[in-house]
């Protein structure tokens, strides 16, 4: 008897001609999980419309429910009714950076003990700076001294708050985490970053924007400093934008097939890092236009190589790297040392997997460079990383015989990605 499992290599669909498609994509992970946390800290019920229903957001809903909120995810629009954080809880962070970083500062407000753990790889992702900062703000945190999962927050019902200095060069989420709960701390929070530049700054801008929607007073007028005034968090009726980072493989499909793909509901103004795709795809030689129907990308006959700093939008690196491996001239992707701490060491994983398919790729401490080479088929390993799977299917659309191992790992941020993707060919 033959059995298949989710881990078995999945033959990636090959585009045999230009792909023409218009797609409606699921909601943003980053916006959904911020909306859920702030709704749970608010003074009354909130609605999260077009919430992303995926592993990361389900884990967030469960974590906030475990703390004491009521999160109803049965309908398409989710409702959050805040409740007292008064029960002992075990929080499963899975592989979600947003759950591991955003929930502990909220758990500090609980009157009970909250224990955190996650997937095996999650125990290697950085969190120590947040735990140290929380202790500085008056939260009792117990860990084994390694500054990683598992750890326990012993809530006392209130957090003094105040000023804290943090090195957020490993992840912007360290800052977002402290900002999200800050208004509920007795003295608010005053966060100062000291260290190498903070990556993914648009994600901190997103946190500030969502806080302001909830009526929270935030001052971000000085570089590397953010203050949140103590005060109530107002309930909000959120409408979640489509996930623009998850748009990358779909727009890339137009890029590699010489086709045309439109992503509906692309916001005219947004704090999502994925909006940078408009500029990056233009540099790669695509024609990009934002109109009433959405964002439309038309692929060129041959992609041009690029030299770009992805420090602000590192989560786009896997998809962009796949395009660079297929381009007709050399590329250099820089400024993304921090993505070695993402779902996997993405620079090492991309270099290994693209090299195995014939790419001429060099791994640098903070990026990757590519020289044009003919790619061939083979198994593309994904290291339980949804965006590695995106890189694999992009190459597979352009090259015969690419098989993507554990394509189901895409469920982190996209329900039934493989089914949706196959429907476009
Ligand atoms: O706050 C967020 O929602 C995110 C921030 C970024 O993290 P880093 O700053 O760790 O890159 C980004 O890469 C991640 O996908 C989502
Ligand atoms: C880095 C990512 O996720 P996380 O929220 O787990 O950090 C990502 O989605 O690319």
UniProtKB/TrEMBL annotation:
Pathway: Metabolic intermediate biosynthesis; chorismate biosynthesis; chorismate from D-erythrose 4-phosphate and phosphoenolpyruvate: step 6/7. It is an enzyme of class 2 (transferase). SUPFAM superfamilies: EPT/RTPC-like (SSF55205). Residues 15-418 form the Enolpyruvate transferase domain. 3-phosphoshikimate binds at residues 29-30, 34, 171-173, 200, 315, 342. This is 3-phosphoshikimate 1-carboxyvinyltransferase. It catalyses: 3-phosphoshikimate + phosphoenolpyruvate = 5-O-(1-carboxyvinyl)-3-phosphoshikimate + phosphate. It is found in: Cytoplasm. Catalyzes the transfer of the enolpyruvyl moiety of phosphoenolpyruvate (PEP) to the 5-hydroxyl of shikimate-3-phosphate (S3P) to produce enolpyruvyl shikimate-3-phosphate and inorganic phosphate. The gene is aroA. It comes from Nocardioides flavescens. One of its GO terms (cellular component) is cytoplasm. It comes from the Bacteria. Keywords: Amino-acid biosynthesis, Aromatic amino acid biosynthesis, Cytoplasm, Transferase. The active site is at residue 315.
């Amino acid at each position: 008897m033959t059995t298949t499992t989710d881990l078995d290599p999945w033959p990636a669909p090959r585009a045999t001609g230009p792909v023409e498609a218009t797609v409606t994509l699921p909601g943003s992970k980053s916006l959904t999980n911020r909306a859920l946390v702030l709704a749970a800290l608010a003074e009354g019920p909130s609605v999260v419309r077009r919430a992303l229903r995926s592993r990361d957001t389900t884990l967030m809903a469960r974590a906030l429910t475990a703390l004491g909120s009521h999160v109803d995810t049965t309908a398409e629009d989710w409702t959050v009714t805040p409740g007292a954080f008064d029960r002992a809880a075990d929080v499963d962070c899975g592989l979600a950076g947003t759950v591991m970083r955003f929930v502990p500062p909220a758990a500090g407000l609980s009157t009970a003990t909250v224990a955190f753990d996650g997937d095996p790889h999650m125990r290697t992702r950085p969190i120590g700076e947040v735990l140290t900062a929380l202790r500085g703000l008056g939260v009792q945190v117990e860990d084994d001294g390694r500054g990683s999962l598992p750890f326990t927050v012993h809530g006392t019902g209130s957090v003094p708050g105040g000023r804290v200095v943090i090195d957020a060069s490993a992840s912007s989420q360290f800052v977002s985490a402290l900002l999200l709960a800050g208004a509920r701390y007795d003295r608010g929070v005053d966060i100062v970053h000291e260290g190498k530049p903070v990556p993914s700054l648009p994600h901190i801008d997103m946190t500030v924007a969502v806080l302001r929607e909830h009526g929270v007073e935030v001052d971000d007028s000085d570089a590397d400093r953010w203050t949140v005034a103590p005060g109530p968090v107002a309930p909000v009726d959120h409408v979640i934008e489509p996930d623009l980072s998850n748009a990358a493989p779909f727009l890339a499909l137009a890029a590699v097939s010489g086709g045309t793909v439109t992503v509906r509901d692309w916001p005219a103004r947004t704090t999502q890092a994925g909006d940078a795709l408009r500029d990056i795809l233009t540099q790669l030689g695509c024609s990009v236009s934002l109109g009433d129907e959405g964002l439309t990308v038309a692929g060129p006959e041959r992609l041009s190589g690029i030299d770009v700093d992805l420090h602000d939008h590192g989560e786009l690196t896997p998809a962009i790297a796949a395009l660079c491996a297929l381009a007709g001239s050399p590329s250099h992707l820089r400024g993304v040392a921090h993505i070695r701490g993402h779902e996997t060491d993405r620079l090492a994983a991309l270099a290994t997997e693209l090299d195995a398919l014939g790419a001429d790729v060099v791994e640098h401490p903070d990026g990757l460079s590519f020289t044009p080479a003919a790619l061939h088929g083979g198994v593309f390993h994904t290291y339980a990383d949804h965006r590695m799977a995106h890189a694999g299917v992009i190459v597979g659309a352009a090259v015969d015989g690419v098989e993507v191992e554990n394509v189901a790992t895409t469920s982190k941020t996209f329900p039934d990605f493989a089914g949706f993707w196959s429907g476009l060919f």
